[in-house]
Specification:
- Two copies of one chain form a homodimer.
- In chain A, 60% of the residues lie in helices and 6% in strands.
- The first copy, chain A, has a two-stranded antiparallel sheet with strand order 1-2.
- The interface between A and B is large, with 83 and 83 residues.
- The structure holds a DNA duplex (23 and 23 nucleotides).
Chain lengths: 164, 164
Amino acid sequence: MKARSTPTRQEPATASDILDEGPLQPILGYRLAQATVVTNRIFESQVAEVLDLRKVEYTVLTLVQQNEGLTAAQLASELAFTAPNMAAWIDRLSRRGLVEREQHSRDRRALHIRTTAAGRELAKRATQAIRAAEAQVLSVLSPGEQLMLFELLQKVASCRAQVK
Amino acid sequence: MKARSTPTRQEPATASDILDEGPLQPILGYRLAQATVVTNRIFESQVAEVLDLRKVEYTVLTLVQQNEGLTAAQLASELAFTAPNMAAWIDRLSRRGLVEREQHSRDRRALHIRTTAAGRELAKRATQAIRAAEAQVLSVLSPGEQLMLFELLQKVASCRAQVK
DNA sequence: TATTGTTATACTCTATAACTATA
DNA sequence: TATAGTTATAGAGTATAACAATA
């Protein structure tokens, strides 16, 4: 359990409940971080601890499954990862028999990464677990709000090329 | 610079440009992570590298400044940090002369944390830098959309008590 | 007994440098 | 000369255990 200091009021939920967020309020990075606390906890308790699958591993597994014959370079670039780290993660998944490396069709330097049957099965179970758990949280939003939130986040993410 | 693999198309911005996100699309944690790539880069280039201030340090500094006589326990609880880490961060800020620890009024175990003049000045500059940089990204959204995004993120964050 | 703050320490995740094989 | 993938390694950041002082 987590230590909670409740000076005079009881059971606060977010920083904004006790603290004055002041200048942080209109900062997108801060708002994203606060929201991420919730999704991280969901992932941790519903996927990481249950299926022994890290966030990155789940993402890689799912992207590889969805995009036949993806290369490590493509994955690294799109997930904003460095090449060495990408290699390490793929290695981990490979050692667990969740993905396999395969000779690239034309470029003999590159490798196609493919999911195994076990990998696909695990990814599927993970997706179901996350969606079910997130649905509970998302239920504080109306269906319209949920759609709106996803679209707005998508728009923000699409600015990636424009920064740095 | 960053390596970019452009097989047949040119200059992709997000994973969704090249890759099929498939089951990841409706996962809030993934969408938040993708959007966070943008805000992290902004913070890194506009604050961390310029003012030598980490994300956590900036947040702590600003919250302490905004909430007179905050204790470490309160900060840790509200930012979802462990107590030992909170102590280390406060220590770092203290050694740089940005915050000071002060005897608590009633509880002799606790300490009030206060910003110094230098701390307030740095926090102010950091806030200005972030807001200016984020404004460019946020300009892809209409004022109404910006407001909506912040409100929806706030709602998600407020579910923190409900998870774990 | 519980809580505040701290030290020591280990683990996870990410980044850089340097290398090979191929383009 | 550049790129794909890898190894080795160092650095952030975070977590757990154990402690002293106080409530």
